[in-house]
Design brief:
Layout lengths: L1 H5 L3 E3 H13 L5 H12 L3 E3 L3 H14 L3 H12 L4 E3 L8 E2 L3 E4 L8
Parallel strand pairs: 1-2, 3-5
Antiparallel strand pairs: 4-5
Helix pairs in contact: 2-3, 4-5
């Protein structure tokens, strides 16, 4: 994962919000730890903000592909940013969205 991030990537504000929520509630991280993590993520990355049009697109994506509204926000943001790959362990590996965005699980299950 570090290699992916070090190459520079586009991050959605939704990804920052979800990571903060998980870190705070499940991992019981302090706010300064979350801020440090976000600073590290954003170093060398482009931040794509969620706008009203992003929300409209995300609702169409949710309806068409059956994603949750939150996952659809991430997908819509990636589409708006012109990304061709979306790394996610929560969505279907290999799925093609709108014929231009491929979902890739960066943590493939080990065969064993």
């Amino acid at each position: 994962m570090a290699e992916l991030l070090s190459a520079g990537c586009t991050l959605s504000t939704q990804v920052l919000a979800e990571s903060a929520n998980v870190m705070r509630r499940k991992l019981r991280c302090r706010i300064d730890e979350i801020e440090c993590f976000h600073s590290t993520l954003l170093n060398g990355s482009r931040l794509q903000r969620i706008e009203v049009e992003t929300i409209k697109l995300s609702l169409r994506i949710a309806d068409r592909y059956g994603f949750s509204v939150y996952d659809s926000l991430i997908v819509a943001t990636a589409l708006e940013a012109g990304c061709s790959t979306l790394y996610s362990e929560d969505m279907q590996h290999g799925q093609l969205i709108e014929n231009r965005l491929r979902i890739i699980n960066p943590f493939p299950a080990s065969g064993g």
